[in-house]
Design brief:
225 residues, alpha+beta, Jelly Rolls, Arc Repressor Mutant, subunit A, four-stranded antiparallel beta sheet, 7 helices, 12 strands, globular, activator, HTH_CRP, cNMP-bd_dom, DNA binding, Crp/Fnr family transcriptional regulator
Amino acid sequence: MKVKETIDYSQFEFLSYFTRAELFDLENFLFLRTYKKNQLLFMEGDPRERIYFLKEGFVKLEKVSSEGTMLYVDYVRAYNMFPYGGFFKDNFYHFSASALTDIVVYYIPTRILEEKAMYNTKQIFAIIHHLSKILEYHENRLQTLTTSNVRDRVEQSLACLIKDFGYKDNGRWIIDLPMTLTELSKLTGASRETVSHIYNDLKKSGILILEDRRFIIYDRDYFAM
């Protein structure tokens, strides 16, 4: 659906670097769409035809091997663009994207956005900066997943989630990302039963609790990295 509403472009870092004239041109190619929870936006190998800007909700990015092993996982929150990987060079998506919750997204044809961004130095630096953050995130994830001790993997994964999605609220920390024990088990490469056992231990110790699909951390120092 063609966007008819007024958009506050300053909320999207990437779009904020365009001039008013450039944004006016882009509005001719800007579309709005809603997806229900678990709906796919695109799959690995699909033509890389759209760049998305998440207005509401959360999106999950993932890549799974033919054996079902999770090779890549990341999450996108509101007011962020995705995917960054492949800018200016890739013709196909390298991973899949699905709605972790009900979502609202804007999208622009890839070719149009890349043509506009190619000559904007601030946007080039924004892309490089964001890709560096993604690389750092996945370096930490790789170190976590290569740990043989399952409890360490679970606790280090929670530490990463606190760092990337956590905020302090009345002396406790809340991971602002919809999460279940099943989702955490996929993230850590551990079984649902094992993750449940570890969670119950942490809960009994007063370290955290899972409430309304949000982890609430009562002992932040326990997860110090």
